[in-house]
Amino acid sequence: MSNYHPETSAEIVAEHGLSPDEYEKAVEIMGRAPNLLELGIFSVMWSEHCSYKSSKLWLKTLPTEGPQVIQGPGENAGVVDIGDGQAVIFKIESHNHPSFIEPYQGAATGVGGILRDVFTMGARPVANLNALRFGAPDHPRTKHLVKGVVAGIGGYGNCVGVPTVGGEINFHPAYNGNCLVNAMTVGLADTDKIFYSAASDIGVPVVYVGSKTGRDGIHGATMASTEFDEDSEEKRPTVQVGDPFTEKLLIEACLELMATDAILAIQDMGAAGLTSSSFEMASKGGTGVVLDLDKVPMREDGMTPYELMLSESQERMLMTLKPGREGQAQAIFEKWGLDFAVVGTITDTGRMQLKWQGETVGDLPIDPLALASPEYDRPHEPTPAQDAANIPESRDLLADLMTLVGSADLCSRRWVWEQYDHMVMGDTIQRPGGDAAVVRVHGKNKGLAMSVDCSPRYCLADPKAGGAQAVAEGFRNLSAVGAKPLAVTNNLNFGNPEKPLIMGQLVGAVEGMGAACKALDMPVVSGNVSLYNETEGQAILPTPVIGSVGLLADIDRMATVALKRDGDTLVMIGDAGSHLGQSIYARECHALEAGPAPSIDLEQEAKVGDFVRALIEEGMIDTCHDISDGGLLVALAEMALAGDKGLSLVSTETSAAFWYGEDQARYVVALPDAAPLQERAKQADIRLNIIAKAEGSDICLPSGQKVALSDLRSQHEDGFPK
Amino acid sequence: MKAGVIVFPGSNCDRDVAVALEAISGQAPTMVWHADSQLPDLDLIVLPGGFSYGDYLRCGAMSAKSPIMREVINRANEGVAVLGICNGFQVLTEAGLLPGALMRNRDLNFICRDVLLRVEDCASRFTLNYEDEQTIRIPIAHHDGNYFADADTLARIEGEGQVLFRYVDEDGQPTPKANPNGSLNNIAGIVNENGNVLGMMPHPERMIEDALGGCDGRPMFESLMETLSER
Predict the structure, then answer these.
(1) Spatial contact of A124 and A262, defined as CB atoms under 8 Å apart
(2) B112 is annotated as an active-site residue
(3) Could you give the 3-state DSSP secondary structure of residue B85?
(4) Is A421's Cβ below 8 Å from some Cβ in B?
(5) In whole angstroms, what is the distance from residue A42 CA to residue B78 CA?
(6) What Å distances lie between residue B87 and A242, B54, B77, B82, CA to CA?
(7) A146 φ, ψ to 5°?
């Protein structure tokens, strides 16, 4: 029989999302029944969102190390060496549940949160990306969500002045009740100026900076850890409201203070706000903390300790300072018009002690709570293998091409990225629309290439292959611009992990992802897990998104997808297409979502990618596109549209699999003379196919049948469900 | 050329324009904090793009009242060159240094893309290095760039040749389709009566090298450098 504090009851425990077993464990850790404030703290710290209790066991299997890795998972973001005393710091994070409830603010605060994770570590954010999934294009809610999410991402990123340079968007009915908003930030820091969250110095002041604390977002982390039902609309008050203007000031103030040596440790207040930030700082430092909650800057009167500890008000940071440096720090934050308050002290007690109006209102042991949070080995079932599907041949290659380039998943995303300032900071050298976005390292002649990728339809058919493919696609996108892949961040979006099939998707995807990261030398340095993406029992497609970052050694040798010269020969590098299972062609042209996912040969992937990258680095190739969604002919059309140059196909192949198959490890390149390429491919034992010649203003088949680029363009540009 | 860039809370193109000024003139500009009340001796004052004061109230409205703006207005009236880009243009209209107002874009969305502009007058100190009626490609990135002025004001600025840049199509024509934001007469940038204060929505500082997509912004800074260095 459980015992309860007079302020709580079995119902209140259940409302806090704690299972009876978890409550028992909380009582055991406390040595008594927790009061309401303490229960609230257990609730958020042990929520799926903060504790990773269902996924932790599997995340541990991912490769996280490499000579390039300065900091892997466990900090606010991953840190990777890029030479010259600099590091790239990046992470991806989901804001799915809030974005479905309130798309503008949900998406905006998703951007704000991931920005803070990156500048907390001492980096100036230099790029934002996002991976979005919405329901069917014709679902009544889709357009409202698309519009709100895009405006929210733009509204926040544009105002803080960090360019939004890339992303991906898919539509599928499985997301009708749960859209996905995954936001990634990439920042740059000096390797000797990286800041961590461990508060290990005893007796130093704990300082709160940024916005005041309000009543918004209380229990956001708990909300993000349950399924939706028809009452989800009522959860709107749990969504936070963002203020990008304050965030911009916070970035500048933090970086200004970071240029001094006053800060000992720093942590942003994200999910579970003051609770999780102070817990993590003390837990990692092996210390304790006393917080004087009366000192917390408050937005309104009458707030309770419970609200102060659980609020997810945005644009706030917690830090410890060297004693005596409070004045210097305060002057900087006041110059930027931000709140600054000493709210506590780091202690050696190993406990979090919360004071309010002179009394201790909460007293919890830190380590058992933060480190010994539940970890489950949930039952998991593998997804059964898909039968081979009989996917019809194309009756009209060009008519099918028109269908594909205008389809929701393949059409132009211009309407979206034109709402994002993708040029601010003056270093965007590859704008959205290419394989990877490239941002120059400020003041240098090298660049960071970035991409976000996942093919959820493959993951549903075969979670392991799909998990591997997401990494392989990132690897290809970076290689296709000439960048050396460095590392990845991952965002695992799944349904309810208490269902064995869903848990099996997670297990399979992580397994595939881990194998690919290992084979392609792209360790996982940060990440985020979002589970319970279900509404009324309907789960999303398994969506393990990979955010990848690479280094382009010489920006003058960067490749782009656009055709550049009439007369260039277009060559396919890699094997001929043969696989139509789970292809966009099958779905869009024959309404078939069937068959196995394409198989992934990681050795071949590495070999072909390294080959293409070497040719770009040498300057032999400046035009390159990887073959992915839609297959070869769609890749060719995208190159033609980007360069506004037509092409004549010379290959007389007619099979749908050749033109629309989505076999992996393939690229198309264009160059004036194919002979030296053929020579190199022969040496490397890599297959080539001469496919087309750049000329005219149509896409022309050997039969003489053609489609004007202008018609293709209007189809491509008008297809987006806006 | 001694240039200064005013930094408001929420400015975010201050570094970009400083980089452009230094790249072209070889001299780093002075960065001036909005709360200062004094300006050093300057040949050019730049109000950069961004979201000063979060665009709260109205774009540029709060910055126009900041302490440094009193001094900027004095210098502008003394004839010092002032360049307001994007949010800087909004601040200049709010401060009364330029006529008209910038309203929400016609389609209500933020727009970031390259646009074509026609240089309406290449005798200005801002445009000497362009050719008359030259079409140039410069990016815009704004939510509120829809230029509006009452009929009399519009007739006056058109009559006095104060329109320096207009949104045009590939053929150099100011068509409705070439107008990205609904601005009256496709107006992208105007000068004051004395010709020393320019406000423009497009960002010339984003087009100063091929790596960024083009160099059509360079001649503006080169024009200023040549004119102002002679002073």
Answers:
(1) no
(2) no
(3) strand
(4) yes
(5) 65
(6) 21, 11, 21, 13
(7) -60, -50
CATH number of the domain to which B46 belongs: 3.40.50.880
Q: What is the ipTM of this complex?
A: 0.97
Give the tokens for residue A597: 């996912």
Q: Identify the closest residue of chain A to B33 by CA–CA distance.
A: A335
Catalytic member of A5, A16, A49, A442: A49
Backbone dihedral region for residue A280 (phi beyond 0: left; psi -120 to 50: alpha; all else: beta)? alpha
Please judge whether B9 and A336 are an interchain contact, meaning their C-beta atoms are less than 8 angstroms apart. yes
Report yes or no: B205 and B20 within 8 Å, Cβ to Cβ.
yes
- Does B211 sit within 8 Å of A555, measured CB to CB? yes
The chain B residue lying nearest A245, using CA atoms, is B54
Q: Which of A95, A97, A219, A380 is catalytic?
A: A95
Q: Which residue's structure tokens are 């389609």? A: B107
Indicate the SS3 state at residue B81.
strand
Give the span between the Cα atoms of A298 and A268, in whole angstroms: 17
Contact A428 B212 (CB under 8 A): yes
Residues A517 and A58: their CA atoms lie apart, in Å, by 15
User: CA–CA separation, B188 vs B180, rounded Å?
Assistant: 10
Per-residue confidence band for A225, with pLDDT thresholds at 50, 70 and 90: low
Check B34, B94, B142, B205 and give the catalytic one.
B205
B51, B109, B206 member nearest A423 (Cβ): B206
Rounded to whole angstroms, the Cα distance separating A386 from A174 reads 18
| Other CB atoms within 10 A of residue A675 CB | 9
Sign of the torsion formed by the C-alpha atoms of B153, B159, B164 and B165: positive
Q: Is the pLDDT of residue A233 over 60?
A: no
Q: Which residue has the tokens 């934001």?
A: B181
Task: Give CA–CA dist A290/A349, Å, rounded.
Answer: 9
Report the residue from B50, B55, B109 with minimal CB separation from A419: B109
Predicted confidence band of residue A718 (pLDDT cuts 50, 70, 90): very high
Q: Which among B51, B139, B205 is the nearest to A245, CB-wise?
A: B51
A448, A362, A340: which is closest to A123 by C-alpha?
Answer: A448
Q: Answer with the residue of higher pLDDT: A205 or A233.
A: A205
Phi, psi of A157, rounded to the nearest 5 degrees: -65, -40
Picking from A244, A419, A555, the nearest residue to B110 by CB comes out as A419
In this structure, are residues A698 and A708 in contact, taking their beta carbons and an 8 Å threshold? yes
Q: What are the pLDDT digits (tens) for A245-298?
A: 999 999 999 999 999 999 999 999 987 889 989 999 999 999 999 999 999 999
Separation in Å, CA of A423 to nearest CA in chain B: 7
Nearest-10 Cα torsion for B77, B80, B83, B87: -40
Query: Does A228 score more than 70 pLDDT?
Result: no
Query: Domain range holding B122?
Result: 3-229
- Percent of chain A residues topping a pLDDT of 70: 97
Contact between B110 and A154 using a beta-carbon 8 Å cutoff: yes
Chain A residues lying within 8 Å of B206, measured CB to CB: 423, 426
Is B13 labeled as catalytic in the residue annotation?
Answer: no
Tens digits of residue pLDDT in A596-618: 999 999 999 999 999 999 999 99
Angle between helices A103-119 and A244-258 (to 10 degrees): 0
Write down the pLDDT at residue A221. Answer: 56
From CA A310, how far away is CA A402, in angstroms rounded? 52
| A649 neighbors A570 (Cβ within 8 angstroms) | no
Nearest chain B residue to A338 by CA distance is B9
Q: Tell me: the pLDDT tens digits for A28-44?
A: 999 999 999 999 999 88
Quickly tell me which residue has 């579970």 as its tokens.
A272
Count Cβ–Cβ pairs < 8 Å, chain A vs chain B.
79
pTM for the structure as a whole: 0.96
- Residue A120 DSSP class: T
Domain total in chain B? 1
Residues A464-501 pLDDT 10s? 999 999 999 999 999 999 999 999 999 999 999 999 99
